[in-house]
Amino acid sequence: MRPPPVIRMTPDLSIVVPCYNEATGLPFFHERLSAHARKVAEARGMRIEIVYVDDGSRDQTAAVALALKPQGTDVQVVALSRNFGKEAALMAGLDHARGDALLFMDGDGQHPPEMIETFVGLWKDEGYDVAYAIKADRMDEPAARRTFVKIFYWLLNFGAQSRIPEDAADFRLLSPRAAAALRRLPERNRFFKGLSSWIGFRQKAVPYRPAAREHGTSSWSFLRLLGLSMEGLTSFSPAPLRLAGMVGAALAAAAFLYGSWIVIERLVWGIPLPGYPSLVVGLMVIGGVQLLVIGIMGEYIARILSEIKARPVYFVADHAVRHAEAAGDRPVGLELPKALP
């Protein structure tokens, strides 16, 4: 007689963790995350899974993740074929997560797992659809970086119908209907913070202070942050094009006023026309602005080309799911009645 089949229930919550070169600290992080996830699952009567997405790490992150043992929660590992970027890793986690609700957090340990209970409480008890972490302050960061962040969010929200909260992190929980709405968005050039704000529903900010990294170093250099900022602006906001148009209009108005003033000086006061220096400066300013506008338009055209090509956002090299009962933890699923002999 064959053993009775087991019906595996769909998780109530999937915790998606994108990872890049986190092999050293991932086991310790998994211990902390599993402990808090198990605590929430037992208190709420929920079933939780953790989805690790390795974004083509150059170290042994994928192998370490595949070796992690479930500790009261299912563990799913999605290893991408190469480094596609964090937005692609978040999308891979979104596609492979089996849970009704989703929670996204980084795998470097700076997003405290203790906040999972707070997020779940806002969803279950207070009816919020999106609970997101927001930095309490940036006083521990250099002044140049704080200024850059303020300029970025000002550009991002310039003329926007749906404002994106400043200093919001990817660390956030989406209720089942918010997660379903996010899954319906078809674009390939994605900006997760913007899209999760754009879908609407009831949203709540939760202040937090990022913990210090205990293992490894951050892979986010200034150039990578600048590239991510450009990708976010051009894939989500038309602000650069609008500002370029405003700059062009301002230059045209200034040129008209300056030309009128030269004519008045010549006809009324007999002042001779300015020489070559003013002409060269004017050409350089106009030429520089034109090149800037062309470059901005090129970024948008590149995004359009990417959407038209419709290439897959990522490819999966390895995929594994380990259920909690396989590690000797609490049983999950319902057993069917035994068949008659």
Automatic annotation (TrEMBL):
Q: What is the lineage of its organism?
A: Bacteria, Pseudomonadati, Pseudomonadota, Alphaproteobacteria, Hyphomicrobiales
Domain of life, per UniProt, equals Bacteria
This chain belongs to which protein, by name?
Glycosyltransferase
Residue ranges annotated as coiled coil are none
Metal-binding in keyword set: no
| Organism the protein comes from | Azorhizobium caulinodans (strain ATCC 43989 / DSM 5975 / JCM 20966 / LMG 6465 / NBRC 14845 / NCIMB 13405 / ORS 571)
Membrane-protein topology: Multi-pass membrane protein
Q: Which CDD domains match?
A: DPM1_like_bac
Q: Name one GO molecular function term.
A: glycosyltransferase activity
Please list every transmembrane segment annotated in the UniProt record, as residue ranges.
243-264, 276-302
Keywords, A to Z, come to:
Glycosyltransferase, Membrane, Transferase, Transmembrane, Transmembrane helix
